């Protein structure tokens, strides 16, 4: 299987995406933002439509849309109670724009829909390098902000009492999240990003009791899903995303059972 | 010799709909235990938010002794049943001086020490979401103290506790007040607690306030009449 270059690429890119989603996911879950990460992947789709309409690269449009909407959402939802509605409002607007651009651009719609479902099989070296760059940028950010981000994500009130600039931390986090979602989504599809960003971390939240423990578990769960999913996709010719989504669901429900046993 | 930790001078706070206080002046000495009391909505939490620099007063000023570090246990916290972190990891959140993801040796020692002193060692691996109300309050206290503040501010920390847990928590606070020179400001509605643990009180009322020694007050009626 590894004698094919496309499988090598898929494994390398998949591994890095699993690591970055595993880590970012812990904060997404800690901050109760699963809903947002779902919307971000769809906003990314709209951004791609916009990029195509403008004759840019799809990624440029995606980055533009996801980052702008993240900042808007971050600014609007200073109060957590308002966040859900802020997310709904902003995503509705951007999704509407996406539909508009798709319909007036007359260009290849299938490229934009690719972004929703994508495929990790068939990506080239360039894309692998993009993923690598994305992973490094996000990891540097996480390392740099580790303690304040952890405090704010798991005890927002305590963090603001401490004088941590929670707004700044929050918007910066959203921007890095937007960056990861867009870059990874145009390569493996936003459905898969959503799965890898939410399920492994949600399972980790059930099982682990420390942030570092959650990260290890979440990365591990994401890696198992990606590696096994790629293998099963290779031998069956069924979509890899299907296998990965199923494996992550199994891990998640398994964790819930584990919790009930204990 | 007493040293002054906080000097509040002619403080005023006006919200568009109402004036909470004006010309409020008081000092807090180092090692003092001050209780703030008053009806719901009179402005106790607002006063504390001003002390914490989270809110700008509309008038007056506050001076802190140089380098005063504040630990604060807020009135409300959102820790639900599914909250994942253990008590230990939750307390450690407030160790923010280091930059590395992992704790240094001295930070770990400090963490062990505070868990020991707040009686949380045996349950340090319990999830916060599963801890009882009393255990949670102790964990909030430990988190505020792990950073070794000079001043501790408690906002109705005992409101949800039964009478045993209430005294347990305040015995701990008293221990830090007496053994570690911690200055304490405690907002409470509980007369007995105030009487037993604090040296002085600040009674906030609509339009005026009263300040005095707890020893001069023998019943809740005394307090209402000051
Ligand atoms: N940012 C704000 N803007 C406008 N009004 C405010 C603001 N913060 C507080 N208030 C008002 O100030 C009053 C005092 O509120 P505060 O929370 O300080 O009361 P409290 O004494 O702590 O009450 P409780 O005992 O119920 O905790 C309330 O009427 C509240 O509505
Ligand atoms: Mg209050």
What's the SSE blueprint?
The complex is a heterodimer of chains A (262) and B (226).
Chain A: H1 5-30, H2 34-54, H3 58-76, H4 83-105, H5 109-117, H6 125-144, H7 146-154, H8 156-161, H9 166-188, H10 190-207, H11 211-236, H12 240-261
Chain B: E1 4-14, E2 19-29, E3 33-37, H1 44-51, E4 59-64, E5 70-73, H2 87-92, H3 105-117, H4 133-145, E6 151-155, H5 163-179, E7 183-187, H6 191-197, E8 200-204, E9 209-213, H7 220-225
Parallel strand pairs in B: 3-7, 3-8, 5-6, 6-7
Antiparallel strand pairs in B: 1-2, 1-4, 8-9
Helix pairs in contact in B: 4-5
The complex binds adenosine-5'-triphosphate and magnesium ion.
InterPro entries (chain B): AAA+_ATPase, ABC_transporter-like_ATP-bd, Metal_Ion_Import_ABC, P-loop_NTPase
Family (chain B): Belongs to the ABC transporter superfamily.
Keywords (chain B): ATP-binding, Nucleotide-binding, Transport
Cross-sheet strand order for the largest sheet of chain B: 5-6-7-3-8-9
Sum up the overall morphology of chain B in one term: globular
CATH fold node name of chain A: ABC transporter involved in vitamin B12 uptake, BtuC
Q: What's the mean pLDDT score of chain A?
A: 86
CATH architecture of chain A: Orthogonal Bundle
Number of domains of chain A: 1
Order of helices and strands of chain B: EEEHEEHHHEHEHEEH
The portion of residues forming beta strands of chain A comes to: under 5%
Shape of chain A: globular
Instruction: Please give the CATH class of the largest domain in chain B.
Output: Alpha Beta
Largest beta-sheet characterization of chain B: 6 strands, mixed
CATH class of chain A: Mainly Alpha
**Overall pLDDT confidence of chain B:** 92
Total strands of chain B: the figure is 9
- Tell me the Rg of chain A in angstroms: 18 Å
Order of helices and strands of chain A: HHHHHHHHHHHH
Number of helices of chain B: 7
- Low-pLDDT runs of chain A: none
